[in-house]
Prior knowledge:
Layout: H1 3-12, E1 28-36, H2 43-54, E2 60-65, H3 79-90, E3 96-98, H4 102-110, E4 114-122, H5 123-130, E5 142-146, H6 155-158, E6 167-171, H7 181-189, H8 193-196, H9 203-212
Amino acid sequence: MRTRYILLFMLISCSGATSSGVACQIPKCTVAVFSGSFDPVHNGHIEIVDYILDVALADWVLMQPDSGTNRDKSNRTPVAVREQMLKAVFELYERLLITLNYKKTVALLREHYDVELFGIIGSDQYIRLAQMSPCPKMDVDRWCVFVREQDKEHPLLQNPVPLDNASVIVVETLHYADCSSTMIRYALQDDNRELIAHLPLHAKVLHLICQDSLYIKEGC
Length: 220
């Protein structure tokens, strides 16, 4: 897949020297970091990626499916399966990387780029983090908060505060802002075939779900 070669392309685009042997300036690069369970990846996730790239909030998007160590989400689909879903959906995106080792990938980028990390976060997570004292330390230079409909009137979204000294940009509700992987899993587990056909899922994701009987008792 093309996403497998993107990191190599990024690293050789400025190797530190020109053909004449004169060192070139280290290029700046803004990377939007998008972590989540993606269990499954749905149209809301796709819409966020499209928005980031369409309005040039970042040069690249780095997606990382969580490993499954969150105690509140102990029954996650294996990370390799969720990675496969992401690759199926985003294989033609030229400025998107998928990684299972966020720290290693970012460290590698920083060897060759002046990297600014742009964290992607939902309004529910932002509100929770903003109310924590002290706020957890996070290796992010800026945040972009995507607002869920039920959070629109929250005071912290009307007057955003920094997270760990990182500035915050608030993006108003998108079409699929209230999509939830959890609710999609519940719908799939109900095994309502008519409902399944209308879930906010990319066709390739639905194909993998049906093919491997993920979240459902039998294939679609």
